[in-house]
Amino acid sequence: MDNVRFDLKSLRAAYAAGATPADVIEAVYARIEASGDTGIFICLRDKSEALADAKALGAYDPAKPLWGAPFAIKDNIDVAGLPTTAACPAFKHDPAEHAFAVARLIEAGAIPVGKTNLDQFATGLVGVRTPYPAPRNSFDPAIAPGGSSSGSAVSVARGLVSFSLGTDTAGSGRVPAGLNNLVGLKPTLGAISTRGVLPACRTLDCVSVFALTVEDAWDVYETLAVFDPQDAYACPVTASQISTPPATLRVAVPKARDLTFGGDALAEAAFARAIEDLRITGATIVEIDMVPFYETARLLYEGPWVAERYQAIRAMMETSPAALHPVTRKIIAGAAKFSAADVFAAQYRLADLKRATAPLWRSMDAMMVPTYPRPRTLADLEADPVGPNSELGTYTNFVNLLDLCALAVPVRFRPDGFPNGVTLIGPAGQDALLASIGAPLQALCDEPLGATGWPQPPLSHHSARARPGEIELCVVGAHLSGMALNGELTSRGARFLRTVRTAPDYNLFALAGGPPRRPGLLRCAPGEGHSIEAEVWALTPEAFGSFVEGVPAPLGIGTTRLSDGTKPKGFIVESVETLDARDISEFGGWRAYCSATA
Hints:
There is one protein chain. This protein is an alpha+beta fold. It has 2 domains: 8-289 and 360-445, Amidase signature (AS) enzymes (Alpha-Beta Complex), CATH 3.90.1300; 465-596, Roll (Hypothetical upf0131 protein ytfp), CATH 3.10.490.10. It is 31% helix and 17% strand. The protein contains 20 helices and 19 strands. The protein has helices at 8-16, 21-35, 47-56, 100-107, 150-157, 175-179, 214-224, 265-280, 291-302, 306-312, 314-319, 326-333, 340-357, 378-383, 387-392, 398-401, 431-445, 487-490, 541-549, 590-596, and strands at 41-44, 70-74, 111-116, 163-168, 183-186, 206-211, 250-254, 284-288, 366-370, 404-411, 420-427, 471-475, 495-501, 506-510, 519-523, 533-539, 555-559, 569-573, 582-583. The protein has an 11-stranded mixed sheet with strand order 1-3-2-4-6-5-10-11-9-7-8, sandwiched between helices. Strands 13-16-12-18-17 form a 5-stranded mixed sheet. Helix 2 (21-35) packs antiparallel against helix 3 and helix 9 runs antiparallel to helix 13 (340-357). The chain is globular, with a radius of gyration of 24 Å.
């Protein structure tokens, strides 16, 4: 089982093929040991207990959406049978029951593995404010892993579990996602019950989801988004299915003057590329003034909401403050400078800012911002524990105060090989819209999952289909995203829809000629060929006609049969031209062949 991928699509396929949850649990514990990172988990379940849960699942039950999926839980969320410490040993206690979210996941067939490390009491965005060894960033140990949900993020990025739970008050479910090439789903306030979660700021807290793909995060969210009448801050939000975004989709980005990257030119260029990729998926880009959002963000760190953190651990602050991490203690102790009158003044100002930002949503359906300005190093934090932390929250701190939902999405890596992420933001209740935008954006960028090196699985076809009046075109060679001839699509306004594979009825050949090199896709008898990597793009009839007119022999356009059951138009090759060509079907696709023969 060491070679089994833990993204949910791959895991389900493995189970359908005969793998067992016990096999997966054995692999989980082997991978945790092999990781060599003792900072990821604060507490692991005994393997025998996890194996017992795995065996109790019985026969494979695809009706349970998370059947056999291993997951991790941030250690400020209760799991019966494991202590909750919130990264403070003196706070340790043994909960009698699971948090509502954990119970929902177990009911859906998921298997809890352990409790993950965090910035103590979920106070921080860096992931290293802990008395335990800090988790290592999954790409560069010199870079902060991001927090406060650092262990939860790293556990997924390293392929140790399928998904994990974190929490998010100021960005703790988004910043570590961006720093570890993950999806971070921060739901609408109250959509996921926080019963059984140690509060940071109870009025702003969310349970968040870390996953390898947008669709995986959404599968977990659908299980969790159930109204809990016992949570006073819960609200009835229904998790609707991901669908194709509206044809008139408008996504706002900050005006250039409002963007900050801390002088990191690579981060700035990466965000510019992400805007262009978003445009390719069909969004209209508009620019907005970020000033009222940034003023809202300052309220969170400079205002009296820190008093909520004080209230959450009031007894400890008043009787044993020395038990806290020095940075955490200093931050929470800052609550003493605020009066009750200050709290009301801040609430009034927040109400003004909500009113000021509301009209901006008339010009946009969603917003896209960098997930963080730039990566920050552990050396930066050693020199200044607070400044870099505040900078990491530049694009996150305002979201919960304004009751917005958000989705951190991995996009194209920076030229230095470090991951890059953006965050989609929408009004309360628009979680599904963000997922429908984020899924094709992640697929278009086509980076490996987390730090595992695993390729992205194909998108579910329901999440990205052509709009009325458009024509779907399947490409398998030099027109793939990022390849030599992709500009022939994008220059015609083609819209990326989804990654997919053909039915196992094709062979792929490297044709003579070039540059650029091109393959030929040849259909054979059903089931006697290979399933080939493909992408589906949408074009207007005019653009499609213009494109087809330029297709040179021996290539042509016919009907392509895909593994998702669809039959879009696609490239075919004259069979006579393959007689002397190299059969490259074993590579599974043109991109893999080009990489192997570069």
